[in-house]
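Milestone M4 deliverable, item 7.
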Amino acid sequence: MLPRLWAGLLIATGLLANEWVLAHLLTDDHRIDRLGLRIAIWVVDVALVGWGLLTWRRHRHPLVRKLNALMISLFVITPLLGEGLLRVSFLLEGSPTRDPNLYASYFSEDAHWLLRLRWSTDGAKLRASDRVHPLLGWSQSVISEDNPWGFARRTRKQMTDDGRRKILFYGDSFVAGRSKPENGIPRIMDREIASADVVHLGVGGYGTGQIHLLFRETHRLVENPFIIIGVMTYDLDRAVLGVRTCQKPRFGVDDDGALAVSGLPVGTDQQAFADTAPLGIRSYLWRLLVTPLRGGDPRRTEKQRVNAKIIEENVALTRKNGLSLLYVVFYSELALTGAPDWREQLLKAELARHGVSFLDTRPLLLDHVRSRGGALSDLYSDGHHNDLGNQVIAGALTAKLRALGYR
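Output delivered:
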Protein backbone atom coordinates (compact mmCIF):
# COMPACT_ATOMS: atom_id res chain seq x y z
CA MET A 1 0.00 0.00 0.00
CA LEU A 2 2.69 2.50 1.04
CA PRO A 3 4.81 1.99 -2.11
CA ARG A 4 1.81 2.75 -4.27
CA LEU A 5 0.96 5.82 -2.21
CA TRP A 6 4.51 6.97 -2.84
CA ALA A 7 4.14 6.20 -6.54
CA GLY A 8 0.90 8.17 -6.64
CA LEU A 9 2.60 11.11 -4.92
CA LEU A 10 5.39 11.09 -7.50
CA ILE A 11 2.94 11.01 -10.40
CA ALA A 12 0.75 13.74 -8.89
CA THR A 13 3.77 15.91 -8.22
CA GLY A 14 5.02 15.48 -11.77
CA LEU A 15 1.65 16.37 -13.22
CA LEU A 16 0.84 19.31 -10.93
CA ALA A 17 4.28 20.89 -10.67
CA ASN A 18 4.18 21.91 -14.31
CA GLU A 19 5.30 25.13 -15.94
CA TRP A 20 1.90 26.83 -15.70
CA VAL A 21 1.17 25.95 -12.07
CA LEU A 22 4.66 26.95 -10.92
CA ALA A 23 4.45 30.22 -12.85
CA HIS A 24 1.12 31.02 -11.18
CA LEU A 25 2.34 30.16 -7.69
CA LEU A 26 5.87 31.53 -7.75
CA THR A 27 5.95 34.46 -10.15
CA ASP A 28 4.14 37.78 -10.01
CA ASP A 29 3.27 38.00 -13.70
CA HIS A 30 2.38 34.26 -13.95
CA ARG A 31 5.06 33.67 -16.59
CA ILE A 32 8.38 31.86 -16.80
CA ASP A 33 10.26 33.44 -19.67
CA ARG A 34 13.61 31.64 -19.40
CA LEU A 35 13.61 28.76 -21.93
CA GLY A 36 16.27 26.80 -20.03
CA LEU A 37 14.24 26.92 -16.84
CA ARG A 38 11.08 25.82 -18.62
CA ILE A 39 12.90 22.87 -20.19
CA ALA A 40 14.34 21.90 -16.79
CA ILE A 41 10.86 21.92 -15.24
CA TRP A 42 9.51 19.65 -17.95
CA VAL A 43 12.46 17.27 -17.64
CA VAL A 44 11.86 16.96 -13.89
CA ASP A 45 8.11 16.51 -14.43
CA VAL A 46 8.62 13.71 -16.98
CA ALA A 47 11.16 12.03 -14.69
CA LEU A 48 8.80 12.14 -11.71
CA VAL A 49 5.83 10.78 -13.66
CA GLY A 50 7.98 8.11 -15.32
CA TRP A 51 9.50 6.98 -12.06
CA GLY A 52 6.08 7.04 -10.39
CA LEU A 53 4.66 4.75 -13.06
CA LEU A 54 7.66 2.43 -12.78
CA THR A 55 7.26 2.31 -9.01
CA TRP A 56 3.54 1.58 -9.33
CA ARG A 57 4.23 -1.47 -11.48
CA ARG A 58 7.58 -2.70 -10.17
CA HIS A 59 7.61 -1.53 -6.54
CA ARG A 60 8.65 -5.00 -5.34
CA HIS A 61 11.81 -5.01 -7.43
CA PRO A 62 14.86 -4.71 -5.10
CA LEU A 63 16.50 -1.95 -7.13
CA VAL A 64 13.30 0.10 -7.29
CA ARG A 65 12.80 -0.31 -3.54
CA LYS A 66 16.35 0.82 -2.78
CA LEU A 67 16.15 3.84 -5.09
CA ASN A 68 12.80 4.87 -3.62
CA ALA A 69 14.22 4.60 -0.09
CA LEU A 70 17.08 6.82 -1.23
CA MET A 71 14.69 9.33 -2.80
CA ILE A 72 12.55 9.53 0.34
CA SER A 73 15.66 10.10 2.44
CA LEU A 74 16.84 12.82 0.08
CA PHE A 75 13.45 14.55 0.19
CA VAL A 76 13.74 14.82 3.97
CA ILE A 77 17.46 15.15 4.58
CA THR A 78 18.60 17.26 1.61
CA PRO A 79 16.46 20.35 2.37
CA LEU A 80 17.47 20.32 6.02
CA LEU A 81 21.12 19.80 5.17
CA GLY A 82 21.02 22.45 2.45
CA GLU A 83 19.39 25.01 4.75
CA GLY A 84 21.94 24.29 7.47
CA LEU A 85 24.95 24.55 5.17
CA LEU A 86 23.60 27.76 3.65
CA ARG A 87 23.24 29.37 7.06
CA VAL A 88 26.72 28.22 8.09
CA SER A 89 28.13 29.77 4.90
CA PHE A 90 26.81 33.15 6.05
CA LEU A 91 29.46 33.10 8.78
CA LEU A 92 32.17 33.48 6.14
CA GLU A 93 32.46 37.12 5.10
CA GLY A 94 33.66 36.32 1.59
CA SER A 95 30.99 33.73 0.87
CA PRO A 96 29.11 34.30 -2.43
CA THR A 97 25.96 33.21 -0.61
CA ARG A 98 26.03 36.49 1.30
CA ASP A 99 24.25 38.29 -1.52
CA PRO A 100 20.87 39.81 -0.55
CA ASN A 101 19.72 39.66 -4.17
CA LEU A 102 19.57 35.86 -3.87
CA TYR A 103 16.88 36.00 -1.19
CA ALA A 104 14.93 39.27 -1.41
CA SER A 105 13.95 42.02 -3.83
CA TYR A 106 16.04 45.19 -3.95
CA PHE A 107 12.94 47.16 -4.94
CA SER A 108 10.26 45.71 -2.70
CA GLU A 109 11.51 43.97 0.44
CA ASP A 110 12.96 45.28 3.68
CA ALA A 111 14.78 41.97 4.03
CA HIS A 112 17.10 42.89 1.17
CA TRP A 113 18.27 46.04 2.96
CA LEU A 114 18.49 44.43 6.37
CA LEU A 115 20.71 41.69 4.93
CA ARG A 116 22.89 44.34 3.28
CA LEU A 117 23.32 46.06 6.62
CA ARG A 118 23.97 42.83 8.54
CA TRP A 119 26.42 41.53 5.97
CA SER A 120 27.84 44.96 5.05
CA THR A 121 27.54 44.10 1.36
CA ASP A 122 28.13 46.63 -1.43
CA GLY A 123 29.76 48.99 1.03
CA ALA A 124 26.57 49.29 3.08
CA LYS A 125 27.21 51.10 6.35
CA LEU A 126 25.01 51.95 9.27
CA ARG A 127 24.05 55.61 9.61
CA ALA A 128 25.82 57.47 12.37
CA SER A 129 23.41 58.37 15.17
CA ASP A 130 23.87 62.10 14.54
CA ARG A 131 22.61 61.63 10.96
CA VAL A 132 19.47 59.67 11.93
CA HIS A 133 16.31 61.78 11.85
CA PRO A 134 13.23 60.59 13.81
CA LEU A 135 10.82 61.60 11.02
CA LEU A 136 12.81 61.43 7.79
CA GLY A 137 15.15 58.51 8.49
CA TRP A 138 18.37 60.39 7.70
CA SER A 139 19.52 63.82 6.61
CA GLN A 140 22.00 65.73 4.46
CA SER A 141 24.36 66.39 7.34
CA VAL A 142 24.74 66.23 11.10
CA ILE A 143 21.58 66.93 13.10
CA SER A 144 21.90 69.25 16.08
CA GLU A 145 19.74 71.44 18.27
CA ASP A 146 20.31 74.46 16.04
CA ASN A 147 20.14 72.37 12.83
CA PRO A 148 17.15 70.06 13.48
CA TRP A 149 16.72 69.09 9.82
CA GLY A 150 20.36 68.21 9.32
CA PHE A 151 20.91 70.63 6.44
CA ALA A 152 24.32 70.89 4.82
CA ARG A 153 26.14 74.15 5.58
CA ARG A 154 25.28 75.94 2.33
CA THR A 155 21.67 74.74 2.42
CA ARG A 156 21.31 75.90 6.00
CA LYS A 157 22.62 79.35 5.12
CA GLN A 158 20.31 79.71 2.13
CA MET A 159 17.27 78.55 4.11
CA THR A 160 17.53 81.68 6.23
CA ASP A 161 14.53 83.91 5.55
CA ASP A 162 16.61 86.93 4.51
CA GLY A 163 14.18 88.58 2.11
CA ARG A 164 15.56 86.93 -1.06
CA ARG A 165 13.34 84.77 -3.22
CA LYS A 166 13.95 81.06 -2.71
CA ILE A 167 13.74 78.13 -5.11
CA LEU A 168 13.65 74.95 -3.02
CA PHE A 169 14.87 71.91 -4.92
CA TYR A 170 13.82 68.66 -3.19
CA GLY A 171 14.71 65.12 -4.24
CA ASP A 172 17.27 62.36 -3.84
CA SER A 173 20.93 62.11 -4.89
CA PHE A 174 20.03 62.85 -8.51
CA VAL A 175 19.45 66.47 -7.56
CA ALA A 176 23.24 66.90 -7.23
CA GLY A 177 24.41 63.92 -9.28
CA ARG A 178 27.96 62.56 -9.17
CA SER A 179 29.73 65.89 -9.36
CA LYS A 180 31.74 68.21 -7.22
CA PRO A 181 29.36 70.36 -5.13
CA GLU A 182 29.80 73.39 -7.40
CA ASN A 183 28.70 71.29 -10.41
CA GLY A 184 25.48 69.99 -8.93
CA ILE A 185 22.24 71.03 -10.65
CA PRO A 186 21.12 73.50 -7.92
CA ARG A 187 24.55 75.16 -7.80
CA ILE A 188 24.65 75.60 -11.59
CA MET A 189 21.17 77.11 -11.51
CA ASP A 190 22.08 79.32 -8.57
CA ARG A 191 24.92 80.86 -10.57
CA GLU A 192 22.63 81.50 -13.53
CA ILE A 193 19.71 82.98 -11.59
CA ALA A 194 20.65 86.16 -9.73
CA SER A 195 17.18 87.04 -8.49
CA ALA A 196 16.78 84.04 -6.18
CA ASP A 197 18.64 81.42 -4.18
CA VAL A 198 18.38 77.91 -5.59
CA VAL A 199 18.54 75.69 -2.51
CA HIS A 200 19.80 72.11 -2.70
CA LEU A 201 17.45 69.99 -0.57
CA GLY A 202 18.19 66.62 -2.16
CA VAL A 203 19.10 63.78 0.18
CA GLY A 204 20.76 60.63 -1.13
CA GLY A 205 18.62 57.50 -0.96
CA TYR A 206 15.32 59.28 -0.35
CA GLY A 207 12.10 57.89 -1.73
CA THR A 208 9.06 59.88 -2.78
CA GLY A 209 7.61 59.64 0.71
CA GLN A 210 10.65 61.14 2.43
CA ILE A 211 10.85 63.86 -0.21
CA HIS A 212 7.21 64.67 0.56
CA LEU A 213 7.85 64.84 4.31
CA LEU A 214 10.89 67.10 3.96
CA PHE A 215 8.95 69.39 1.63
CA ARG A 216 5.93 69.42 3.94
CA GLU A 217 7.95 70.29 7.01
CA THR A 218 10.51 72.77 5.64
CA HIS A 219 8.86 74.88 2.92
CA ARG A 220 7.48 77.11 5.67
CA LEU A 221 10.97 78.07 6.83
CA VAL A 222 11.11 80.70 4.07
CA GLU A 223 8.47 82.98 2.60
CA ASN A 224 6.64 82.03 -0.61
CA PRO A 225 9.26 79.69 -2.13
CA PHE A 226 9.14 78.22 -5.62
CA ILE A 227 9.07 74.43 -5.22
CA ILE A 228 10.95 71.99 -7.45
CA ILE A 229 10.54 68.28 -6.71
CA GLY A 230 12.95 65.96 -8.48
CA VAL A 231 11.92 62.31 -8.65
CA MET A 232 14.08 59.54 -10.04
CA THR A 233 11.71 56.83 -11.24
CA TYR A 234 12.98 54.22 -8.78
CA ASP A 235 12.17 56.59 -5.90
CA LEU A 236 8.61 55.32 -6.24
CA ASP A 237 9.66 51.86 -5.01
CA ARG A 238 11.29 53.28 -1.92
CA ALA A 239 8.08 54.77 -0.50
CA VAL A 240 6.67 51.40 0.64
CA LEU A 241 9.89 50.20 2.31
CA GLY A 242 10.46 50.49 6.05
CA VAL A 243 14.23 50.33 5.68
CA ARG A 244 16.67 51.16 2.96
CA THR A 245 20.11 52.44 3.89
CA CYS A 246 18.63 53.07 7.32
CA GLN A 247 15.29 52.62 9.02
CA LYS A 248 12.80 54.97 7.37
CA PRO A 249 9.12 55.93 7.38
CA ARG A 250 6.92 53.49 5.49
CA PHE A 251 4.06 54.87 3.41
CA GLY A 252 0.68 53.37 2.66
CA VAL A 253 -2.92 54.35 2.04
CA ASP A 254 -5.43 53.65 4.81
CA ASP A 255 -9.01 52.42 4.48
CA ASP A 256 -10.26 55.99 4.17
CA GLY A 257 -7.94 56.69 1.25
CA ALA A 258 -5.61 58.92 3.26
CA LEU A 259 -1.81 58.78 3.16
CA ALA A 260 -0.56 56.78 6.14
CA VAL A 261 2.94 56.83 7.60
CA SER A 262 4.25 54.09 9.89
CA GLY A 263 7.55 53.07 11.44
CA LEU A 264 8.01 56.29 13.40
CA PRO A 265 9.89 57.56 15.23
CA VAL A 266 13.10 56.28 13.67
CA GLY A 267 15.50 55.27 16.45
CA THR A 268 19.05 56.58 16.66
CA ASP A 269 20.47 53.12 17.47
CA GLN A 270 20.50 51.72 13.96
CA GLN A 271 22.82 48.85 14.92
CA ALA A 272 20.14 47.49 17.24
CA PHE A 273 17.50 47.98 14.57
CA ALA A 274 19.53 46.20 11.88
CA ASP A 275 20.30 43.29 14.24
CA THR A 276 16.76 42.74 15.54
CA ALA A 277 14.32 43.82 12.83
CA PRO A 278 12.44 40.75 11.51
CA LEU A 279 13.51 39.57 8.07
CA GLY A 280 10.41 37.60 7.22
CA ILE A 281 12.55 34.80 5.72
CA ARG A 282 11.83 31.35 7.11
CA SER A 283 13.95 29.38 4.68
CA TYR A 284 16.93 30.81 2.81
CA LEU A 285 17.10 27.67 0.70
CA TRP A 286 13.52 28.10 -0.47
CA ARG A 287 14.18 31.77 -1.26
CA LEU A 288 17.32 30.79 -3.16
CA LEU A 289 15.32 28.37 -5.30
CA VAL A 290 12.25 30.50 -6.02
CA THR A 291 13.85 33.94 -6.43
CA PRO A 292 15.01 33.21 -10.02
CA LEU A 293 11.41 32.31 -10.88
CA ARG A 294 9.90 35.51 -9.61
CA GLY A 295 8.93 38.06 -12.21
CA GLY A 296 7.11 41.37 -12.10
CA ASP A 297 6.48 43.12 -8.80
CA PRO A 298 4.00 41.82 -6.20
CA ARG A 299 3.74 45.31 -4.68
CA ARG A 300 3.25 47.22 -7.91
CA THR A 301 -0.42 48.06 -7.25
CA GLU A 302 0.44 49.17 -3.73
CA LYS A 303 3.26 51.38 -5.01
CA GLN A 304 1.04 52.92 -7.66
CA ARG A 305 -1.64 53.76 -5.13
CA VAL A 306 0.80 55.19 -2.59
CA ASN A 307 2.69 57.33 -5.09
CA ALA A 308 -0.48 58.68 -6.68
CA LYS A 309 -1.49 59.80 -3.18
CA ILE A 310 1.90 61.37 -2.47
CA ILE A 311 1.71 63.42 -5.67
CA GLU A 312 -1.83 64.44 -4.76
CA GLU A 313 -0.64 65.57 -1.30
CA ASN A 314 2.24 67.58 -2.76
CA VAL A 315 -0.05 69.32 -5.22
CA ALA A 316 -2.65 70.06 -2.53
CA LEU A 317 0.03 71.47 -0.22
CA THR A 318 1.39 73.87 -2.82
CA ARG A 319 -2.06 75.06 -3.87
CA LYS A 320 -3.20 75.52 -0.30
CA ASN A 321 -0.19 77.76 0.36
CA GLY A 322 -0.26 79.52 -3.01
CA LEU A 323 3.12 78.11 -4.09
CA SER A 324 4.40 77.35 -7.58
CA LEU A 325 5.36 73.73 -8.23
CA LEU A 326 7.57 72.14 -10.87
CA TYR A 327 8.46 68.46 -11.05
CA VAL A 328 11.60 67.03 -12.63
CA VAL A 329 11.56 63.38 -13.74
CA PHE A 330 15.02 61.80 -13.50
CA TYR A 331 16.12 58.43 -14.88
CA SER A 332 18.94 56.00 -14.36
CA GLU A 333 21.03 55.32 -17.44
CA LEU A 334 19.54 51.84 -17.66
CA ALA A 335 15.98 53.18 -17.56
CA LEU A 336 16.68 55.38 -20.58
CA THR A 337 17.80 52.42 -22.68
CA GLY A 338 14.37 50.79 -22.55
CA ALA A 339 10.72 51.67 -23.04
CA PRO A 340 8.88 53.67 -20.35
CA ASP A 341 7.96 51.47 -17.40
CA TRP A 342 5.00 51.74 -15.03
CA ARG A 343 6.86 54.21 -12.81
CA GLU A 344 7.43 56.70 -15.58
CA GLN A 345 3.90 56.22 -16.88
CA LEU A 346 2.40 56.77 -13.43
CA LEU A 347 4.42 59.91 -12.75
CA LYS A 348 3.51 61.53 -16.05
CA ALA A 349 -0.15 60.49 -15.86
CA GLU A 350 -0.62 61.79 -12.32
CA LEU A 351 1.20 65.06 -12.98
CA ALA A 352 -0.88 65.60 -16.10
CA ARG A 353 -4.06 64.75 -14.20
CA HIS A 354 -3.30 67.42 -11.61
CA GLY A 355 -2.16 69.94 -14.19
CA VAL A 356 1.39 70.11 -12.80
CA SER A 357 4.22 71.35 -15.02
CA PHE A 358 7.23 69.02 -15.22
CA LEU A 359 10.55 68.66 -16.99
CA ASP A 360 10.96 65.19 -18.48
CA THR A 361 14.69 64.51 -18.72
CA ARG A 362 14.19 61.43 -20.97
CA PRO A 363 13.75 63.35 -24.25
CA LEU A 364 16.10 66.07 -23.04
CA LEU A 365 19.05 63.71 -22.54
CA LEU A 366 18.29 61.46 -25.52
CA ASP A 367 18.02 64.46 -27.84
CA HIS A 368 21.31 65.81 -26.50
CA VAL A 369 23.03 62.51 -27.24
CA ARG A 370 21.52 62.17 -30.72
CA SER A 371 22.33 65.74 -31.75
CA ARG A 372 25.98 65.35 -30.76
CA GLY A 373 26.54 61.78 -31.86
CA GLY A 374 27.56 60.69 -28.38
CA ALA A 375 26.39 58.01 -25.96
CA LEU A 376 24.26 58.03 -22.81
CA SER A 377 27.35 57.03 -20.86
CA ASP A 378 28.75 60.49 -21.64
CA LEU A 379 26.11 61.91 -19.29
CA TYR A 380 26.41 59.42 -16.42
CA SER A 381 28.93 58.36 -13.82
CA ASP A 382 28.44 55.79 -11.07
CA GLY A 383 24.73 55.52 -11.85
CA HIS A 384 24.07 59.28 -11.64
CA HIS A 385 24.36 62.28 -13.91
CA ASN A 386 27.91 63.57 -14.20
CA ASP A 387 28.99 67.19 -14.80
CA LEU A 388 27.76 67.14 -18.39
CA GLY A 389 24.44 65.55 -17.53
CA ASN A 390 23.92 68.10 -14.76
CA GLN A 391 24.72 70.96 -17.11
CA VAL A 392 22.16 69.79 -19.67
CA ILE A 393 19.41 69.42 -17.06
CA ALA A 394 20.29 72.64 -15.21
CA GLY A 395 20.21 74.54 -18.50
CA ALA A 396 16.69 73.32 -19.30
CA LEU A 397 15.47 74.11 -15.79
CA THR A 398 17.01 77.57 -15.87
CA ALA A 399 15.25 78.25 -19.17
CA LYS A 400 11.91 77.25 -17.61
CA LEU A 401 12.48 79.55 -14.63
CA ARG A 402 13.51 82.45 -16.85
CA ALA A 403 10.22 82.03 -18.70
CA LEU A 404 8.50 82.45 -15.33
CA GLY A 405 10.30 85.73 -14.61
CA TYR A 406 13.41 84.61 -12.74
CA ARG A 407 16.53 86.46 -13.92
